[in-house]
Amino acid sequence: MADQEQIANRIQVWKHAVDVAMHFNDMSSRSRRLGLTFVAAVLSLSIFFLKSEEKSSIEFSVLDFELTVHISFLLSVFAALSINVVKVLDIGVYHSMLRGAVTFGEDIENLLRRDILPLQKGLMQSISHFSRYSDAKAQISESGDSYEYSGKIYRTAEKKLLAFYRRTAITLYAISFMLLLSTTTLSKVEQSSPVNPVQKMSDLSTKTESEISSKKIEAGTKAEPEIRSMEVERETKAPHTSGAGVQNN
Questions:
Q1: Closest alpha carbon to 25 in 99, 87, 134
Q2: Cβ neighbours for 182, distance < 8 A, ≥ 6 positions apart
Q3: Are 169 and 82 in contact (CB under 8 A)?
Q4: N or C end of the chain, less CB within 10 A?
Q5: Environment class of residue 135 by beta-carbon count within 10 Å: exposed (0-12), middle (13-18) or buried (19+)?
Q6: Which residues contact 116 (CB under 8 A, 6 or more apart)?
Q7: How far apart, in Å, are the Cα atoms of 236 and each of 228, 240, 243, 247?
Q8: How does pLDDT run across 119-134, given as a tens digit for each residue?
Q9: Which sign, positive or negative, has the C-alpha torsion 121, 108, 18, 31?
Q10: Can you say how many angstroms the Cα of residue 159 is from the centroid of all Cα atoms in its chain?
């Protein structure tokens, strides 16, 4: 039997253990809440682009094909990947710390139950029991001094959280797959046939001769009025010249 001072110290340590466990539980819940809020915002943005009348697609060239991907599909994939990041932060960090704090608190409660609390379980032990057993029950003992706990279906909170994140991720990936089928197009790019160098030089020569001929015709067309005016002027001067010769004779 521990003395009163030792019991008081154990109670203070237990209180700190409870505070630490509550802190990590709050951090775990907060990270989960913020992560799901972020995923919901990304999905809302995806729906906005899906309903938008403006062009919301990105084109990629893959070998001989042109792939057109809608932004809503990319956002849904990003949301599915984000939920995995939230899972790592929630279960891998905060929940692990919470389990450590709860385990330490349960160890302190074992000492306190032995010294001052003739109970079957302490506070953290009772919470852990109802969290770990799906069919957890507590009934008053025959003596009526405490509760007796029972449960057969053992499933930890970690497994429940993993199942939650797994189902959420599967749902998001299913949404992404449906968007991929409904919004993505794949078309083959038409390639021009290879050009024969000899044929190319022949076509170029023909084109050059045609351009030269057209320029000559154009130049002749422009010079034709000048030539005609010169002929008219020559014909006009001819009678005057012949008349002058007659008078001299």
A1: 99
A2: none
A3: no
A4: C
A5: exposed
A6: 7
A7: 12, 8, 12, 19
A8: 888 888 898 999 888 8
A9: negative
A10: 27
